[in-house]
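Dear colleagues,

As part of the handover before I leave the project, I'm documenting each prediction I ran so the next person doesn't have to rerun anything. This entry is a single chain, and its sequence is reproduced below.
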Amino acid sequence: MKKLTKRFDVDITGEVIIYDPLEEGNPRFKFEDSVSSGYEELTSISDWNNYLRRVLTQYKKFRNEMIINFIPGWFSYNNAQKKILIRHWIWDSSESIPELDLLIPLNKRNTFKRNVIDSLNNGGNCNICKSNDSEKYFDIQVDDAGVIVVEVTTDLIF
């Protein structure tokens, strides 16, 4: 799995990112296979939520990486960590609806879903459409193999 890293001089502990301007020849954050010299790995859901978008500008790629890296540990996370993921319409599919409702009510989750759909559409690589007969959304993509239609769920979107 890839790693989100930051330069050693970048301080993300406060409200404002502090860094050494002499180091600006190197990116502040990287998304890489292994940790480069002069960098340290960021592993928390909060850090990924706050800083991965600085590296992966397409929302679809950002969301997929969050799913790959954080769904496997879903049941070990605290409520605050789970809420961050739910805001991106991400959770373990075996999670019970009553448990999700306790974390974030359905109406709020549906708002997050609409925001995710909008963010995915703005990425330019997918076209999200709504089913006429239900509250289901589909990612429609055209590639060399033809048209691919995938329902937008809490799983990966390719």
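Residues 140 and 149 are 5 Å apart (CA to CA). Residues 106-122 form the longest helix (17 residues).

All the best with the project,
I.
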